[in-house]
Amino acid sequence: MDTVTSPYAAAAAESDATPESDPDLLIDFRDVSVVRDGKNLVGPVSWQVELDERWVIIGPNGAGKTTLMRLAAGELYPTTGEAFVLNEKLGRVELRELTTRIGVASPALLERVPDNEVVSDVVVSAGYAVLGRWKERYDDVDRDQAVESLESMGAEHLADRVFGTLSEGERKRVIIARALMTDPELLLLDEPAAGLDLGGREELVARLEVLAKDPDAPATVLITHHVEEIPEGFTHALILSEGGVIAMGLLPEVLTSKNLSTAFRQQITLSKSGGRFFARRSRRAGGHRRA
Ligand SMILES: Nc1ncnc2c1ncn2[C@@H]1O[C@H](COP(=O)(O)OP(=O)(O)OP(=O)(O)O)[C@@H](O)[C@H]1O
Hints:
Elements: H1 7-14, E1 25-36, E2 39-50, E3 54-58, H2 65-72, E4 80-85, E5 88-89, H3 95-99, E6 102-105, H4 107-112, H5 119-124, H6 140-152, H7 168-180, E7 186-190, H8 198-213, E8 219-224, E9 236-241, E10 244-250, H9 251-254, H10 257-264, E11 268-273, E12 276-281
Parallel strand pairs: 3-8, 3-9, 6-7, 7-8
Antiparallel strand pairs: 1-2, 1-4, 4-5, 9-10, 11-12
């Protein structure tokens, strides 16, 4: 295993003597694992995320990426280890106390949005951590914040549309706008570009790049299957395979052909151009020749 230790991991190790988390760490997982029905879904993982960091999590199907993100979202408790999110220990704090402080955009959330919901309501209702308006009353300041969030994703023109009529790419942008609505301290994006066509993907990656480079934007964790979807401005990477960490730390040190080859169990060649990454299976030396 080729593990790059982040300076925060070292700091966290030092503070192991005290049970509380370092206030600079938004995520502080210590030997955390999740086990279900006797199967280890992820871990043990020790992982720390600081205020200004933008992390990408990458790994094969079933590697445990979503499970790790659901822990970070406070949607799951660890089976073993200690997990602090926004300095609250999971298991000790009521999960709903965290929900407006963490912005989540995931396929699971997308599925739960009622088709007949108006886009501006999809966004504004995040302030109440609910999906689907019922009887909540929203102030003008909430409405303004919703418009601002939609603008940040280039989706303000969709505000009066009905969610069910949006394209896949439009839905993805709206759900991220919703995640930003509460001005969260932590932004968690699970495969935001999945299912998008080339234009939709590039539009989204460009928006996420702006967000990643904004010093006032929240710390961000992005799950992706494709290195091409990593926006410029991302600082750290965590590569998972079969629930275990292949490598984690600074993105240039971790996102390498070697680590991707280990994770995906085939020879992968990684290249970089114009600040973006590209990956392909390596050609075998002396490969196929015409007879
Ligand atoms: N509740 C559960 N009970 C048993 N196994 C589960 C449960 N939830 C997830 N798993 C399994 O845990 C493993 C990790 O799942 P997870 O969704 O975290 O992986 P992932 O890396 O996000 O995968 P993908 O890239 O396919 O979305 C998978 O093998 C999955 O089938």
